Amino acid sequence: MVLGPLSPRQPFSDEAVKLATEAIRSGTLFGVGGPLITRFEAEFAAYYGAKHAVTVSSGTAAIHTALAALDPAPGREVITAPITDAGSVLPILYQGCVPVFADVDEHLGMSPAAVEACVSDRTAAIIAVHPFGGAADARALRDIADRHGIALIEDCSQAHATRFDGRFLGRYGRIGVYSLQQSKHMTAGEGGVCTTDDDRLADEMRLFRDKGWDRVSAGARGYPRLGLNYRATELVAAVALPQLGTLDDVIARRRRLAEVLDAAVDRAPDATRWTAPSECDTSYWCYPFFVPAGQTAAWGEALAAQGVPTSPGYIGDPIYTCLTALRPGQAFGGSGYPLTLAQEGRGVYPPGLCPNAEEALSRLMVFWLHEDHTDEEIAAVGEAIVSAGRALAG
């Protein structure tokens, strides 16, 4: 059986269209201090139980804004994940810091033991990436950060409304970061949000997203700190606001569909489930599963032949292999900055640096599950997984 095109995702409601139309007709889409951005930030913070939410133009901008609020000196180190998008790493480089990659555990989150081993006297922060709607061990990472006096930033771009040990991810760190990019649980096409309970960090993030402009106390033109233009427009809030009210239903639907695929993977020869930690209520940004090492391309072809699109290997290689800027002399006009500031043994990223991550990516398949797939489609996708496994097992 070959499936036809799968149902597209339809995240934008009539209410989103109404709010966007009203914003356009108002004649003003500028976001800072705008009524929709102000409302969105209040409701987003309330949903997660945070004191502050700061809206920016993308998830990458949100990570940069969070890190910039900490104001680390050039050459300081930031520990992060090897299985992630470039958006988790580029802000580290642009902030003049040195990325340090901590290997993953069986759930593909950063291993606390690996993170602990990466800490040095130059460590400024940990950016904990929560993958696929699952979680790194946020509680253990918070303990490590507190013990060493460093900041924990949680990258929840793929983990909206995911709870770990009953608590939302993003609430363990000093700052939580969320993406509103097209594929995320909540989307405005692009956009990002930072949450915090720290008044000072919230102020620093608001300054940084607005070119360092203090619009409250510095007069007409006062720029007390470095910043960039990471401002979001009123349209971001208009289309994202209604999704706060449906987010729980979206995730419940994804969980039900994932259960169907779990059952199929259990029946498929040589396929195994990806699992999140037992403390995690997974929100399923996508549906990952594992196949034998080196067979991801063959599985991708077998599934594509049945009309099921996948991403074999996810990003293919760890981000330290994919990202040219991490190679000697490749960034900032060939200077190699900021890696030239690294202490001995840091700032180099050879193959084998994170063996668990490299091995996992050689086995990882990703199906782009979403809430608007029909029950019939997901049942058929499950049967395609079983069929592919049987065919490839011979």
TrEMBL record:
The modification N6-(pyridoxal phosphate)lysine is found at K184. Coiled coil: none annotated. It holds the Pfam family DegT_DnrJ_EryC1. Its cofactor is pyridoxal 5'-phosphate. One of its GO terms (molecular function) is transaminase activity. The keyword Signal does not apply. It comes from the Bacteria. Gene3D superfamilies: Aspartate Aminotransferase, domain 1, Type I PLP-dependent aspartate aminotransferase-like (Major domain). The keyword Nucleotide-binding does not apply. The active site is at K184. GO terms for biological process: polysaccharide biosynthetic process. CDD domains: AHBA_syn (cd00616). It comes from Labedaea rhizosphaerae. Keywords: Pyridoxal phosphate. This is dTDP-4-amino-4,6-dideoxygalactose transaminase. Belongs to the DegT/DnrJ/EryC1 family. InterPro entries: DegT/StrS_aminotransferase (IPR000653), PyrdxlP-dep_Trfase (IPR015424), PyrdxlP-dep_Trfase_major (IPR015421), PyrdxlP-dep_Trfase_small (IPR015422).
